[in-house]
Amino acid sequence: IQYNLINMDLKYKMSETETIVNNIALVKKAINVALKASSRAENTTNLVAVSKTRQLDVIKKALTAGQYIFGERSVQEAEGKWLDLKKVYPSTQLHLIGPLQTNKVALAVGLFDVIETIDRIKLAKAISRQINTTGRHVRCFGQVNTGKEIQKSGVFPEDADAFVKTCRLDLNLPVDGLMCIPPKNEEPSLHFGLLRKIADRNNIKELSMGMSADYKIAVQFGATYVRVGTAIFGPRTV
Ligand SMILES: *Cc1c(COP(=O)(O)O)cnc(C)c1O
User: Fold this and answer.
1) Ligand 1 within 6 A of 232 CB?
2) C-alpha of residue 159 to centroid of ligand 1, in Å
3) How many angstroms separate the CA atoms of 199 and 189, rounded?
4) Quick check: helix, strand or coil at residue 8?
5) Average pLDDT of the segment spanning 49-65
6) E strand or H helix at 46, and its extent?
7) Is 142 helix (H, G, I), strand (E, B) or coil?
């Protein structure tokens, strides 16, 4: 009894830094468990820490923990937060995971290392032009609207093969990844499986799929990138 009381008194509360460090470790561990369960090699799924809406002090805690891949939804928000931060942490890989307007392409190509949301020819053309004139190395993923939702971006599954082919052959844009965001109330594995199939038949290496709620399933379906925000930083308040 005495022992339990002492334990209660000393009950330890983690600081925000410790929580973030701990969460990153937990997510990475769960990724490796899922990799093993699906007979995939260790460390073949990368963790994108989704830092949209998060303030600099919070992001720095993840950086200090060794996390170096981050995802942002808005070009403008990312510019404000990452322009200086990337100089301090030069190995950072920044992924654009939100919609991109053609008038922001120059900014995006200058700032991001991976653009995951290429969803139309006009945009692909603008990105290709910018990459080829600046010589900057940016990896390009196509976004597929696997659920064919009107409110979501992405090419429809039946148009994906032609889209990838046009990007590669006509626009000199090396698409080497696909991303999707499954509909909220549907079984995500159907969408992950569909994206995987499209990638396989187009010889596409990278699959960005899975968020906090379903990243373990995505790993089992072959995700090479999972995009996790809430499970690392906690619920978003904005
Ligand atoms: C916000 C966001 C995520 C992360 O979602 P969580 O549920 O917080 O893990 C992943 N991908 C995209 C495209 C997002 O916009």
Assistant:
1) no
2) 24
3) 15
4) helix
5) 96
6) strand 46-50
7) strand
Give the percent of the chain with pLDDT over 90: 92
Cβ–ligand 1 distance for 188 under 6 Å, the answer no
What's the whole-model pTM score? 0.94
Q: Write the DSSP assignment of 81-115 as a string of letters.
A: HHHHHHHHSTT-EEEE-S---GGGHHHHHHH-SEE
Q: Which of 188, 236, 186 is nearest to 216 (CA)?
A: 188
The tens digit of pLDDT for each residue in 187-218 reads 999 999 999 999 999 999 999 999 999 999 99
One-character DSSP codes across 166-201: IIIIIS---EEEEE----TTS-HHHHHHHHHHHHHH
* Ligand 1 pocket, residue 74 CB under 6 Å: no
Residue 181 C-alpha to ligand 1 middle, in angstroms?
A: 9
Residue nearest (by alpha carbon) to ligand 1 atom 10: 227
Tokens describing residue 169: 């052959």
**Which tokens in the block code for residue 116?**
């995951």
86-116: burial string, b at 16+ Cβ within 10 Å, e else: beeeeebebbbbbbbeeebbeebbebbbbbb
